[in-house]
Write a structure and sequence with these properties.
single chain, 205 residues, alpha/beta, 8 helices, 38% helix
Length: 205
């Protein structure tokens, strides 16, 4: 929210608004502590819901957590914030608040934003995501292992860190993520960072 060329609100909304063959919009609740969602909501105002695919992302707790410098806000699974018994309530709360800010009644795809090892493997997290299938706000609860995997690839490509291969090896495998997800009734897309969830050629982020 605070980088790149400054844009006025009208120009920014125009860039975000679906159209011209770009019909998928991705937002994340933690960006600007909800400000990104609000910007998306302004851009989508008046656009028929069936004309676009909206992808949401939740997982960093800026409601109760405190920003930890460059590391950002803690993940929902931070033991200092809550235990596994409260993951589901947080996931639903964060999803509903993000939808409210976006001014819509559902996401087409919901991502678990930059999960840690607990987020990857906790059955309580997957169950919380899958539980959203029972309410009309997520037609397909998809909980991918995404940005962290992409970051590892970038580190290795740019030689940012000598221990990147070790970090890669330490992450849960695709099969373990998929197994944990399926046992909770959710679907996993481990490489969602390069997938096209709504079958459209281009995506606005």
């Amino acid at each position: 929210m605070h980088f790149g060329e400054p844009l006025d609100d009208e120009r920014f909304a125009t860039l975000l608004r679906p159209g011209g063959g770009i019909d998928t919009i991705i937002t994340a609740d933690v960006y600007g502590k909800g400000a990104a969602d609000l910007a998306v909501g302004r851009a989508l105002a008046g656009v028929p819901r069936e004309d676009y695919c909206l992808v949401g992302a939740i997982g960093h707790d800026f409601y109760e957590g405190e920003r930890q410098g460059a590391k950002g806000f803690p993940r929902l699974t931070d033991p200092a914030l809550r235990g596994p018994e409260a993951y589901g309530d947080y996931i639903r709360m964060a999803t509903e608040k993000s939808l409210e800010r976006c001014g819509v009644d559902r996401f087409d795809v919901l991502l678990l934003h930059n999960p840690d090892r607990i987020g990857f493997t906790s059955e309580a997290v997957w169950a919380g995501m899958a539980a959203l299938l029972a309410v009309p706000i997520i037609p397909s609860a998809i909980t991918p292992a995404i940005w962290a995997r992409a970051r590892i690839r970038n580190r290795r490509r740019r030689n940012w860190s000598r221990d990147a291969p070790a970090r890669t090896a330490a992450r849960p495998s695709r099969s373990s993520v998929a197994s944990t997800a399926s046992s909770s009734g959710a679907r996993a897309i481990p490489n969602a960072v390069t997938s096209n969830p709504c079958s459209v050629p281009r995506t606005r982020v």
